[in-house]
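2 proteins. here.
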Amino acid sequence: MPKLKTRKALAKRFKFTKKGKIKRSRPFKRHILAKKTGKRKRALRKASLVSKSQAKMIKRLMPYG
C-alpha cells in the first residue's frame, strides 16, 4: 500500500487540535476593514472549529493530520 498524499492547500488552511477537531481561521478579514466595527474585527481574529460534516471531508483529504 503506497503512502497517501496530503492536500497541501488544505494543510495550509487547517490545523488539528489535540483532540482531533479541526481549527480554521475566519473569513472577511483581508480588506474593506474601514466599514467593519472594531468588535467585529476582534472577533474575526479568533480561530473557530470546522463543522462535523466538513470535518469528515477534510480528514479524508489530510490523512496524516
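next one coming up
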Amino acid sequence: MPSLRGVNRLPRLLLACLLTGLACTHYENPRDLRIHQDIPSSGEALSLALFQSVGVGLSPGHSVELVQDGHIPEALEAEIHQARESLHLLVSSWQPGATSERLVRAFEARQPGVACRILVDPLYSPYFQEEVAPRLIRAGCEVRLFRPLPGDAVLPDKERLEARNHRQLVIRDGRSGLTGGVGVGPVWRDTSVHVQGPTVRELQQTFARAWQEAGGGLLPASAFPPLAPTGEARAGFVASSGSIHLSHTERMLQVLIASARHRLWLTNACFVPTTATADMLIRKARAGVDVRVLVPGLRYGNPRVLDAQRASYARLLENGVRIWEYQPSPLRAHTLLVDEQIVTVGSINLEPRSHAFLEEGSLVVEDADLTRSLANSFQRDLTRAVEVHPGDWTQRGLLEPLSAEPLTSATDCP
C-alpha cells in the first residue's frame, strides 16, 4: 500500500483510480482546446492552420463531386465496374439486403485480375460474417474483420470493444476515392463525396494502416501510383484515431469553426457536443455568424441518443445557435459548411465517446462549386425538418424529461 502522505490534494476520484487500478476515464475537460485566434476561412493560411493542428493541409489539383442518398450505392457499383487494378473498402457497417446484394454481384462481375480487399467492423455488422463474407471470398476478395470480437474463451476488454472503425472509404486503383457517413445497408439520408487527385493517396494510406492491423500486410507499390492534378479544388483527408485527450477530429473542428466569418452549417447524425465545441459554436453565433445545426428527429432517432442530443439544446438556443430536427428518414450525414469555400464530408460523430474511441475520417475540401452544392442540399433538408425555437423549448414543461447524462457507449451512435 503506497503512502498517502503528500497526496491529500488529489481529487478523491483520481486517488481511488490510482489505488485500485480502476480504468477511470474522463471524457471532457473544461480546459479542452478552444481556438480564439482569427483564422481565414480559405487559402494558404487555413491550410497551414489545419496542418499545424492535424498534420494535413489542403493540396491543389482535385476534382470533387457530392454523392447523396440512393446515388451512393450507384457510385460504389460504378467504382467496382471501373476498377482495373485494385478495390479497397473500409466500412463500419455492412448489412445484408438489397444494397449488399447489388454490390456483391458487382464484385463477382469485376474485371479479371482486380485485387479486392475488404475490411469490415464486426460490431456494427452482426450478420456480415455469416451471410455476406462467404460470397465475397468465393468471388476472390480478401475479407478481414477490423478488431474481431473476442470469442467465448476470451474475456472482453470494454475499451477495445468500443475502439471501433467508423470510417467509410472506397479506393479504386489508388486513383479514385469515395468517403461519407454510412456503410453498406438501407438507403438513408446520407452524404458522401467522390474525389480524384493527390489526396486519394491519404485515403489509401488510411486503409493500408487499418489493413495492416487486421493482419493483411503491406499493399503493393501499385496501390500508390503517381497522381496528377485532375481539377481546381484543394483537399485533404483527416484521419483520426480515438483519444481520451484530444483527437484529430476535435482539433479539425476547432480550426474550421474558428475560421467561419458569416456562415456555419452543420449536419450530424449524432450531435452531443463537448463543452468546447458548444462554446465555439456559441462564440460564433454571438459574433453574428449564421450557425445552423441539423440533427435526427424523434421518429427515426435512437431514443437514448435523442435524449442526450436534446440535453444540449437549451444553452445553444439561448445563445443564437439555430437547430432543426430532420423528419422524413434516418439521418446519417456528417457534414460541415463554412462560408463560401470550405466543406467537410465524412463519418465524424460530434459526441465525446466517439472522439475518445472511434476511428474517424473526414475529407476537407476548398471549392466554391462543392460548397454551393452542399448549401443547396442543406437548405432542401431544412424544408423537411422542424426548427426548434428557443421559446417553445424552454416552455416544453415536464412532459418531456431530458437526461444530461453522457452516452454509455460510442456505439450508441450510428
